[in-house]
Amino acid sequence: SAGSIRVWSDYLNVHLHPKSVYVIRQYMHDGDCGCLEAFGQGESLLRDPGCIEELEDRLHFYVEECDNLQGFQVLCDLHNGFSGVGAKVTELLCDEYSGKGILTWGLTPVMSNRGDFQKNFYRLMNTVMGIVHLSSHSSLFCPLSLSGSLGIQPQPPVMFPYLHYDASLNYHSSAILAAALDTLTAPYRLCSSQGSMLHLAETLNFSGRKVVAAWASVPFPALRGSSLPDILCAYEQEVPWKLLSSCREQKVSCCFAQSVVLRGICKESHLSSWQGKQPPSPLHTWESSEQILQQYLHSVFPGAFSTSHVLQQSCHTLPPYPQFFSPLLTREGFLLDKPPRYPSAAVESIPVLAALQSSAVLHTLLHSLDKDLQKLNTRRLPSFFSAGVEHDDFQETLEELRTLSQCYKTGFEADESEDEGDSD
């Protein structure tokens, strides 16, 4: 039952090679005390020569097996001391494997400890330190979470119209993020892919914009039997995806560049059905699914640099994937016009639309974190700094955060920031 599931390894079906695991034994997992709770604690772990040696040994074991090493994916918590571990790991990778791609995903669960000042304080500090340090040593960095906010002020979690998930269960939220992550990374993981991990990063990280936002539609709302142009025409003004990077979602946000992946949709051409007739929309005049999606993105995000991929393989949702789907979904994850008369079979796969965007929404995210910290007296909890972070270093990190946020500022955000400054 879902209530008995605590961590991802409770459902692990594969046998891990001993070289693929390095256990940190100095701290307890998810306990009331002895937790890895501060950025400085995580950094200090990887300053230990013994830890570095063990980590490098495991890393070299796998690197030597690669015929063509693209780079590294780093998934790490942002809200606790693992942000410090991830910062040092990416620094190590950057130093030893310069020229290789490093894509880093900063993960945060949906938080419930609203009233605990110290935990919220630590979470905010760890998040800011993690974003700045991880992005500086990575080719691309993406905060990934279903939490509505990374700041002090709590916001409701992200909701999806055809999912009935429990945001308090990491088992549920991590499954949604896994479907998005599996889709987002497909362009450089498939054998048929032309581009590499580093190529993807370079299309999005120009002008210092090394932080990107993730969006996803899980599942992509496709009526059974509808063509891709029909589906997209229903969303001409607004893409049917949700922001997975913990920021107040904006209806219209400037996009500088994006990589979009649609999977689980039939790639057959529907152009022949309109021969001799007037197509109902410009999208119906294009032959391939790739062309249709590309034209749709150009119409919704004019001026943005967009790359698109359409994959026929859907996202598998067989056990242990949680069955939290709407009864309106078929076994293949397509929408029905009305609920079935009888309980439907388990959903075995779903279509997914996901995107990585270099977007102005990131100015809102980064600027709001800076504002939250300005309201706090960071000297009220000296224990955070006693864990290994100097106060001057933290102030320097804040300056880097502000510089990073400026990379995403547009005219609208500039006016908004000036108004906020005047009101303060």
Automatic annotation (TrEMBL):
Query: Residues in domain DML1/Misato tubulin?
Result: 3-190
Q: Which GO terms describe its biological process?
A: mitochondrion organization
Question: What Pfam families does the record tag this protein with?
Answer: Tubulin_3
Which keywords, in A-to-Z order, does the entry hold?
Cytoplasm
Q: Where in the cell is it found?
A: Cytoplasm
**Coarse class of the protein's main subcellular location:** cytoplasm
Q: Which GO terms describe its cellular component?
A: mitochondrion
UniProt-listed SUPFAM superfamilies: Tubulin nucleotide-binding domain-like (SSF52490)
For this entry, the protein name equals Protein misato 1
